[in-house]
Design goal:
about 375 residues; alpha/beta; Rossmann fold; 7-stranded parallel sheet; 6-stranded parallel sheet; 15 helices; 13 strands; about 35% helix; about 15% strand; globular
Length: about 375
């Protein structure tokens, strides 16, 4: 059986979606990885040995630096990926590659992190943060409408969908009219381990984009004079640094080992945004650390309120500050936090993914291809 893996972009290192791809690549190490754009320098050594095949966008001048300006070309680039020779297409998508073209008789299983957020439910937020002039914003709004029509028209191309959360399941049903199977994404519980050292800072790790709502944490910690460490980079960083008081530190992008050091010693991990799932808070719980999260999205499926962390109910500095005031770190057991994270291990993800794939293949009179025995 000829197998292809497909991913939207390989541009930002091993973040949540890329970790799903890495777990799939462990199962099918000889499968080529098709993607729209690939930046080897940003991806680092973890994927250096993969057979990565980018689209024609890779050949455009400065495409990796200016990829956000290539929005009109994304449908064409997606449909240009050469998958006609493959019997099994395994896509990992939060925007484009669920719409790849494969042979009519091929099986296409799409692991969906979300229908494209900027097309379906964050369009205005996307435009507001774009920095475009009013005229350019109006043109982009029309472009998003055309892309949304294309996205809806191509939602039938996967044979079946897997969803990363119940929230995403609902969105797949709402926007695509398709059923899906729930398979939670993997958390690397073997890398994020408990530590006996305690420090007083609260922690945020992630891309500094507007929807991450890091501003809520900065304002809340400013008011209370609490130490906050922010790891990550992105377009919001200058604004957030201007907003920050003396107790807030921005460390930018840090090596993975240093990130794990900070996660394992923080007083609590903060998640002020609504995520489709949210892997970083589970990494903190894997390290025995509690989480203070907005009560929405995937956090409602992964955080045990009062056992592995606390919820705050409104996305305002006031609501988060109140949660910080009533946060008693000593009541949270490291063991209980880690036990909760272990429910989302990489091994569990790979087993459930293979079960869903095997069932889909059996329905078509096919059998599951061999996988490395250590991953079964």
């Amino acid at each position: 059986m000829r197998i292809a893996l497909v991913h939207d972009y390989l541009m930002q290192g091993l973040r949540g979606a890329e970790r799903v791809l890495a777990a799939l690549h462990e199962l099918f190490p000889h499968a080529p990885v098709f993607t729209l754009l690939h930046d080897p320098a940003r991806m680092g050594p973890d994927s250096a040995a993969w057979d990565i095949r980018p689209s024609f966008l890779q050949r455009l001048p400065a495409s990796r630096r200016l990829h956000k300006k290539l929005l009109p070309l994304m449908p064409r680039a997606t449909e240009s990926l050469r998958l006609q020779e493959y019997d099994l297409v395994l896509s990992d998508s939060s925007a484009w590659v669920k719409s790849v073209r494969s042979r009519p008789e091929a099986v296409h299983l799409c692991y969906c992190h979300s229908p494209a957020r900027f097309l379906w439910f964050w369009s205005e937020e996307y435009l507001a943060s774009s920095g475009l002039s009013p005229l350019a914003r109006a043109a982009t709004r029309r472009l998003l409408h055309r892309l949304r029509r294309w996205d809806a028209a191509t939602c039938h191309r996967p044979t079946h969908y897997l969803a990363n959360s119940r929230l995403t399941q609902g969105r797949i049903r709402q926007f695509y009219g398709r059923d899906s199977t729930l398979v939670y994404p993997p958390v690397d519980t073997e890398l994020f381990l408990p530590c006996e050292e305690d420090e007083e800072y609260f922690l945020i790790v992630g891309a500094l984009n507007p929807y991450k709502r890091v501003d809520l944490a900065v304002e809340a910690c400013n008011r209370l004079g609490l130490p906050l460490v922010v790891i990550g980079d992105g377009p919001e960083r200058p604004r957030l640094e201007a907003l920050a008081g003396p107790t807030v530190r921005f460390l930018g992008h840090r090596p993975a080992e240093e990130v794990r050091h900070y996660v394992a010693r923080c007083r609590a991990f903060l998640m002020p945004q609504e995520e489709d799932f949210g892997i970083a808070p589970l990494e903190a719980q894997s390290a025995g650390r509690p989480v203070i999260a907005f009560a929405g999205g995937g956090a409602l499926e992964t955080l045990l309120d009062g056992e592995t962390g606390l919820f705050f109910t409104e996305q305002t500095p006031d609501s988060l500050a109140e949660a910080l005031r009533r946060f008693p770190a000593e009541q949270f057991s490291r063991q209980r936090c880690r036990e909760n994270a272990l429910r989302f291990s990489k091994q569990r993800f790979q087993e459930e993914y293979l079960q869903a794939l095997a069932q889909l293949l059996v329905e078509r009179g096919l059998s599951l291809p061999p996988v490395p025995s250590a991953q079964v």
